[in-house]
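Predict structure. Chain length: 384.
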Amino acid sequence: MPREIKLNNSDLLVMNLVHYFITEKNYNPVILHGINDEIWLENLDNDYKLIRIVSHYIHNKEQLNFDRFKLNKIIGNLKKKTFSLNMPIINIYTSLGEDVKLPDDENNMLNVFISKTSEIKNDNLIELFPDIVEKTSHEEKGIDLFVKISDDINKESFAKSKRVEKIFSMKKPLITYLIILVCVILFILMYIFGDGSTYNRTLIEFGANAIAFTKRGDYYRLFTSIFLHAGIIHLLCNMYSLYVIGPQAESFYGKIKYFFIFLFSGISGSLLSTALSGYNAISVGASGAIFGLLGAILYFGYHYRVYLGNVLKSQIIPLIVLNLFIGFSFSGIDNFAHIGGLIGGVFAAMAVGVPDKSSTSDKANGCILLLIYLVFLIYLAFFK
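Prediction complete.
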């Protein structure tokens, strides 16, 4: 004989809240080991990045103080993991002793006590989430409500996991391979139709960013110089870097957006080099564009820092810092192009947007910043 499932009001209250924040407000569960009778949810794009639902009984002030100590420690760890300076949190307690008084609300912490589903009509919650009462009111009762909520949460979680899986799945990096092929072909042509890639005359003939020529009106050099390289070592280093970094960026952003980021970063690097390098300087190479791809990956990783936080700290940021340090430490390296490309890559990524994260307003703001940056570089290069 099947056993009857009985749900108390506290269980339904917690499930109602979890259902609302996951299916309506795009929060995701946070896995915390060693934490019992608490549910943590995160949405780093919301004003309140964390929701904590505490269902265990807190019977006195001392236990509440310990809970506060534990809470601050967990938030500190989450800040480090997600590169967040501030993580506002809503604490929702469902079981408190009669003499327990919650601490006053702070700028980054809202404390709420709700013991019944009917009490979700909390003024503070309604102010932050105006539809919370409507969305937590269900016709189903008891076990039927439990089944509905469970199904909705499972469907939403599955849909989110499929979206994330699609974004992070590797796609064939056709644009990256095409760029590498163009660079190699141009390198060979400089030996067939010129004196070789190490001769300034040949580099200039093939479209190097020779500052004197560019400032006199050969603006196409800002573009063509991206695909030229001076010497086999220069070519191999840049092509290997592009081979490693390019496929990841192309997979994250898609082919068209990736190509736009690459070109804008390369041109940004050429413009800053034109503005700050000597009048007789000659600059070639894809490294400015490659730095832009690193900037775009950095921007993408920040939005998906729950998944890529450790990669950003251990790989991407150290790689950027190390290469900039090398550029400043050795002569013959155009660090102006690197810096211009890096910044350009971030702005280009903001303009095209991060899949499933950037809103229309985010991309509009990115386009505005990108145009301001481009106009500023043009002014520095040609009008100052």
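Summary: The first strand starts at residue 28 and ends at 29.
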